[in-house]
Amino acid sequence: MKISLEQVRKVATLARLALPEEELHTLTGQMDAILSYVDKLDELDVADIVPTAHAVPVENALRADEECPSIGLDKALANAPTAVNGCFRVPRVIE
Amino acid sequence: MLSKYETVIGLEVHVQLTTATKIFCGCSTRFGAPPNSQTCPVCLALPGALPVLNGKAVDFAILAGLATHCRIAPRSIFARKNYFYPDLPKGYQISQYELPICEHGHLDISLEGGATKRIGITRIHMEEDAGKSMHGETPETSASSFVDLNRAGTPLLEIVSEPDMRSPEEAIAYLKKLHQIVVYLGVCDGNLEQGSFRCDANVSVRPRGQEAFGTRAEIKNINSFRFIKQAIEYEVERQIELVENGEKVVQETRLFDPATGVTRSMRGKEDAHDYRYFPDPDLVPLVVDEAWIARMREQMPELPEARRARFVRDYGIPEYDAEVLTAERALADYYDACVKLHGGGKVCANWVMGEVIRGLNEQGIGIAECPVRPQMLAGMLQRIDDGTISGKIAKTVFDEMWRSGRDADTIIAEKGLKQVTDTGAIEAIIDEILAANPGQVEEYRAGKEKVFGFFVGQVMKASKGKANPAAVNDLLKKKLAGG
Asked: Longest Cα pair distance anywhere in chain A, in angstroms?
């Protein structure tokens, strides 16, 4: 096995996914299959290859430090389930 | 108890950059705007929005790296740091992980007694700030938190030191030095209250002589030099007590409470520490070539140490004066401008460290708001040099410049403060004074030379301070001797 049920459970918790036990088992099987497939790369000798962060050979996409208009409060809060005094309102996050 | 143990401190400092816009979008970074008014699809994390790196933020990172003797990475990449919190709209913070922009630097701090100590800088990386969460305080709002994303996406440098500090005093010396440098560079406004310069401290203790580090606790987000000292002192005591009682220090994040002076555990956050960093596919690698570094070197302002040395060497002022005058960049600029206009290094230092700093302290303002500008101070000093006013009258002129914002020449003309050097006029005053005080004249002539000061005082008073002191001295001596 490339990945254990416990690892899948942990990843699910970190991703805030509440998965039923049954689904955790299914996912463990699927992820194991994916990881086994990726293992095919081990057949190659990559000792001299630098880790690649990007497939496209582009560097330094930069912008000038110039202000652009913001979108405005109404649009910014348009998707908020509730907003109070211009702030997004969320369930309390500290005790 | 303390002597049995050695304290080990490493610091992580978050420096907010002074760019006009955020790190990955064009929203303003201005402080104090109405909540969420400085937001756009990128910093709100709306679907499909893509970040583009602010080139100025990179300039600033390079400047900070050069000033702290770091190696600037020819190639660095951005990574996603994954965690959930309402003020982090994307569910990840864009940061740098394996390949930060600067590494392997150091700062030399001065210790008590004049010794210096080198503190290693592990790395400096670029990242975005999160938004701000406020927590309801009334019965109706106590179940809610409120999120303002104006700060989300503000450019930060995280400057990570080696665990090289051995006391709270060393930690403070390092922080002050670092603060002074980033403010001199102009990459940070240095405002601790507004959170432009924030510190996390990693603190551990170990029995003296032991090589392995003890287990450390991380104290989060302390926003004043005084609190940092208190927080570290408390934490050291707490850990020593644990060790003495045979208990274990737990590796954890703790919060310092300035009201009680105590650090407390942020339980329940342990799980969140699995950040699962990976390269951000939305941002291409950052390549900094020699030409870019050279350009930044050219833009590098003179740093405090170099400036202090130049003031001593070129302006002939004592080391102590140079230290005071270079503590803040704005003050050093002010003094520098005065000397360039007037030429007298020591006399300018005396006035800046005396009248100017006193005035600023009295009114609780900074040098930027000083009503007496360098050209005004230099102009007044020239009037002392050319004999127009005496040093004593200069104080009056200075106060009036401070009050009115007008220059010395205007004030001297308007208030008739021009020094009297005309010997005839001074002689006339002296004659009057001598005639009015025959008793004292007798005393002086009988050998009681201390009375001389009395006559000087009387003459100056009669001339409203405008008589040239040297001329008064000369003429008085002659008159008293000659009779």
From this structure: 59
Question: Reading across the β-sheet that carries A83-84, which strands appear in turn?
Answer: A83-84, A87-91, B144-148, B132-135
What are the structural domain ranges in chain B? 2-293, 302-415, 423-482
Option in B41, B82, B147 nearest A71 (CB): B41
Distance CA B153, CA B454 (A): 70
Per-residue pLDDT of chain B (483 residues; tens, 9 = 90+): 557 899 999 999 999 999 999 999 999 999 989 999 999 999 999 999 999 999 999 999 999 999 999 999 999 999 999 988 999 999 999 999 989 999 999 999 988 887 899 999 999 999 999 999 998 888 888 889 999 999 999 999 999 999 999 999 999 999 999 999 999 999 999 998 888 999 999 999 999 988 899 999 999 878 888 889 999 999 999 999 999 888 888 888 888 888 888 888 876 555 556 889 999 999 999 999 999 999 999 999 999 989 999 999 999 999 999 999 998 889 999 999 999 999 999 999 999 999 999 999 999 888 989 999 999 999 999 888 888 888 888 888 899 899 998 888 888 888 777 777 677 778 888 888 888 888 888 888 888 888 888 888 888 888 877 788 878 888 888 888 775
- Tell me whether residue A62 is in a domain: no
Interface confidence (ipTM) of the complex? 0.90
Residue of B nearest to A94 (CA): B135
**Structural domain harbouring A36:** 5-43
Domain count, chain A: 1
Residue contact A73–B36, C-beta within 8 A:
yes
Mutate to test the interface with B, among A52, A62, A95 (most CBs of B within 10 A): A62
Question: Is the pTM higher than 0.90?
Answer: no
What residue spans of B123-224 are helical by DSSP H? Answer: 168-185
CATH class, B423-482 region = mainly alpha
CATH of the domain at A38: 1.10.20
Judge whether A57 lies within some domain: no
Q: Is residue A38 part of a domain?
A: yes
The answer to whether residue A24 is domain-embedded is yes
In sequence order, the 6+-apart residues with CB closer than 8 A to the CB of B223 are B192, B193, B195, B198, B199
